[in-house]
Amino acid sequence: MRKIGRISGKDILDKNSDAYVVEDVVFSELTRIPKSTLLDFPHIFEGFLLAFCSAGKARFKIDLREYSIEKDMLLIIFPNQIFEPISRSEFLHIQYLFFPLDILSGISFPFDLNVAFKIGKQPSIKVPTGIMQELQTYYNMIKNLHQRDTQVYRKEIVRGLLYSAVIQACSIYTDTESDLEIKSPHKERLIKNFLKLLMQNRKQVRNVSFYADQLFVTPKYLSSTLKKVTDRTALDWINEAVIIEAKTKLKTTDLTVMQISEELNFSNPSFFGRYFRQYTGMTPLEYRDR
To answer: What is the overall mean pLDDT for the chain?
Structure first.
């Protein structure tokens, strides 16, 4: 079994002779992709990937769910998502930007939880021709800065272009249909804070009451709000976060099941095994060896 590797910007540069970097933003344009590339095995991106397809077609899985990309489609992959290729056409033309999220730290983003959920649910999406051309323009402008290492304010220009590309990509999702509609600022703030707490505490806490207490609401109100907006209860979210963390450790590390169960604060490996099987239909070792 081949373990899922973690891919950083440096890995992309080392493995792809057509990849370049400018101010921590890796960019590349791929055509007639040869075998034995990063698109031929499962891995986890350590940064944010923004890709535009202008020809060909590819099928893949993100966090075990299948998607595809073809001409005039955009693909967004968040950090720490598991990417698994399935197939691709012989001629596949893709331009992509890969970057660490901290490169945009300090820049204020308009927060829209609806958009975040839509991207998570549909990471590849058809793009109107005009917007695709604008995204490619941002890409080309970033690419051109690679040769201008003495450019004054180059880092600031790259950050500005990248910010514009990300916001433009996110704007595509504002017009798509979604089951998620948040009309209450209070509920939006509650869900945002719950998800933030969950990311911080998913390895240690699986109790809904803990999160409700931190958010100054009752467990019942927290779960009913999440269910109404996201179609999943607080416990559903907690369990999914724990399972994703467990899957990642099983596929990307050599930790034993006992060590993983301890890291995720389970009382013993047997309890962890039963928990994992309840939500995945297989034991931890069966998942690791699949």
So the answer is: 85
